[in-house]
Amino acid sequence: MKKTYTAKAEDIKRKWYIADAKGQTLGRLATKIATILRGKHKPIFTPHLDTGDGVIVINASQVKVTGRKLKQKVYRRYSGYSGGQREVTLEVLLAKKPTTVIQLAVSRMLPGGSLGADLVKKLRVFADDKHNLTGLKPIVLEAKK
């Protein structure tokens, strides 16, 4: 009879990847990043453990979206007070905080709870091509065109 494999802490080897968002579609880039953060690209993937790697995203301000999403996609937040609901379109958010767009897209693809919170901590997003994480020796993530 086969037994279910569960990864142990000593089996997990962490790597860092660097993804260039320049000219890439937001959703397709976010799914690729979420897969790596979750660890689904590894044969030792275990659903309830953090087996994933870290990801550095550069050029977040140059990410591409299709269709009419720039005008129609709306991000909402609510403070809990009456009149406390705020809305901002994707176009405005990309202009003001391009890193937030990618962080929200990726974090909403990850599981909720403490596991998802730990996974999001391994995501670093930069608006331009400069980053201060060269000491991690990241591997370049290939972009499919």
Biggest pleated-sheet summary: 4 strands, parallel
Distance between the termini: 43 Å
CATH topology-level fold name:
Ribosomal Protein L13p, Chain: A
**Principal-axis shape:** globular
How many β strands by DSSP? 6
Query: Oligomer, anyone?
Result: single chain
Indicate the proportion of strand residues.
15-25%
Report the average pLDDT across residues: 95
**Rg from Cα:** 17 Å
The CATH architecture category equals Alpha-Beta Complex
Task: Assign the CATH superfamily.
Answer: Ribosomal protein L13
Given helix and strand content, the structural type is: alpha/beta
Uncertain segments: none
Strand line-up across the major sheet: 5-2-1-6
- What is the N-to-C succession of helices and strands? EHEHEEHHHEE
* Proportion of residues in helical segments: 25-40%
Number of helices: 5
Description:
- About 30% of the residues lie in helices and about 15% in strands.
- With about 140 residues, the protein is α/β, with parallel strands linked by helices.
- It is built from five helices and six strands, in the order βαβαββαααββ.
- The strands form two sheets. Strands 5-2-1-6 form a four-stranded parallel beta sheet, covered by helices on one side. A two-stranded antiparallel ribbon has the order 3-4.
- Helix 1 packs across helix 4 and helix 3 (about 90-95) packs across helix 4.
- It is globular and about 55 Å long.
- The chain has one domain: Ribosomal Protein L13p, Chain: A, CATH 3.90.1180.10.
- The relative contact order is 0.23.
- The mean pLDDT is about 95.
- It starts with 15 loop residues before the first strand and ends in a 5-residue tail after the last strand.
